[in-house]
Amino acid sequence: MSSEGPKKDILSRLRKIEGQMRGLQRMVEQGTPCPDILTQVAAVTAAIKKVGAVIVQTYMEECLEKTQRDPALKQGETLRDFQKAISRYIDWA
User: Fold this and answer.
1) Whole-prediction pTM value?
2) What pLDDT, in 10s, does the model give residues 17-30?
3) Which domains can be identified in the chain, with CATH numbers?
């Protein structure tokens, strides 16, 4: 990832998630009721999925920009690389 704007956004989101994870650990240590913990797990999961979506969009934009900048690039190869990455993400999400 080469763009500074998306990189800062992603790092900010990841730091927030890190804080949420520490909060989850404290909740478990303190014996917080399961429904409350599950609510926070759902929030962390949604935040991680959003980070993935931002990365997917950034990657797609970078791939398109790269192929437009250098038409000699093998567009098929770039597209296959993108599809592999998306497939791995979708299998998880």
Assistant:
1) 0.76
2) 999 999 999 999 99
3) 4-92 (1.20.58.1000)
